[in-house]
Task: structure prediction
Amino acid sequence: MSLIAPISIMFLLALLLAAPYVLYPILVRRLRSRDVTAAAGDDARQAPRVSILVPACNEAEHIAAKIEGALAMADGGIPVEVLVCSDGSTDGTDEIVRGYADRGVRLLVNGIRLGKPATLNRLVAEASGDLLLMTDASATLSPGALDVLVGAMVDPRVGLASPRYAVVGVNPTAGAEVAYWDAEQRLRQAEAERDLLIGVAGAAYLVRRSLVSVLPEDTINDDFVIPLRVRLAGYRIAFCPDAVAWDAPTDSLGTLYRRWARIAFGNYQMLWRYRSAVRHDRLALPLARKALKTLGPVLLFSLALSAVWTAGTWRGPWAALICAGAGVLGAALPFALQGTALGRVRLLRGMRYGLAAQLAYFEGTFRFITRRRDGLWRRPVTSLAAQWPKPPLSVRAAKRTFDLTAASVGLLVTAPVIAVIAVAIKLDSRGTVFYRQDRTRWGPDGTPMTFYMLKFRTMCQAAEAQSGPVWAAKDDPRVTRLGRFLRKHRLDELPQLFNILIGEMTLVGPRPERPSIVATLSAQVPGYGERLAAVRPGITGWAQVQCGYDTTFDGVGDKVLHDLAYVAHLYRLSTYLRMELRVLLRTVSVVWYGKGAQ
Result:
């Protein structure tokens, strides 16, 4: 067999693998720099007010120094306000921040951990500044950094200003991490000079308040999504090398691994949601680099397979086997020598760093494909998990067995009904048969995660395009004629049997809510988050059969009490079985007599 095909494939894969790290930087530097000199601003304009926003989850070690540094920024004459949002902290972070109340520092508290996107959304909503300095609690900014960043924003074409990011310190991962970030910052400066910059370090960046919109609460890489939105709005990102934000090196390769896996998941999420951005002439090239970096493990594995194929084609099966064995040993060697004198050789440390990154990106790829978000964030246990232990194994096993049986039988029995409803929806109004809606449930680590809940479409197509996510009202004009009947008899919920089969929902449990109002409900309604800590969201529930549909925030409190009452029955098998049967019998009555939404 000819060697041309396998060698050609090997060459192409090697080219794609090297492109983000070698070819892209060369290409960027060969492109002509664009005019990025600051456009004339209004010198007489009053100095903009800056809101320094600090999301914090168990940051007692860093938060005092962070606040002191933030308050010192006001010495430059720029009006500054400091807001800290504690996201379910249990280590004394809240008490430390309260100690700065007399110096104007405002504390917002999420009683349960909602995640960084929800925390940022709350901070942005409370901020009064024209410019927002998003900054991590652990990051330190150089003296005068805020003045430099604000100076860059004088140019009305600039929507976001990023400082240079540096890793400072010594530990086993520091050498490779420092080298990576030094190279990355040089590349970002070159990108900014050619108006190609789309990514910034999340440690700190300054952005115009008018350009920051609500983040979906399942967002992973917020420090990439916000800058990308700025670019899509037609603004530039300024890179300010004279302003520096630095962090200590990551404490271990394991911590880096989890961060890389999370970043890979977030990259896929962002690339898919903003796939139309590739049509932008200044964004296609950096987005292609981001995609190739994220696909690195897939390309590397394919390259290894093609090398084995080439060896087998050239010298037979034994050569292929030897090639495969050599590849496995070569990949394992840097990790096997870790902790030894030889393992401290710079080449082996770099190989270990790079291979760990590829393995982590592979896990992130797998997680994105299988939609597994649980465990992406590793934080100390928060109050949500601590206050609500899991039900006993007997209850969990019985509930899941019943769910699988009921969903399977239910889909078989209702298949003709589902088919008739699907045809009727198409005949009744223009649009799709099914409607996918983001809903929030709590993961095993006590953090919110979103999933797509399936329903039959009961409203006009794009009903929320102008109103946004709002509760349906009585005689809601957006509801179709058929939709009114389906909602009355709860038949629009039938497709959620598929959600049960794949483990996203349960048959009986608290109803999930849309991410856009989860943070508001959790802050305003005591117990709202806790009701979902011990059980998946359900199609029906004690609150649903007793209280009906939500139409306003005022009715949520009563439903929460019913949900908590249901959860309290999950800690003994006998009480669980009685409550489950009671809810299901009541559900039959509600469906039969049409006591749903009108």
Notes: The chain has three domains: 1-30+253-379, 37-251, 388-593. The chain has a mean pLDDT of 81. Residues 1-30+253-379 form one domain. The first strand starts at residue 50 and ends at 56.
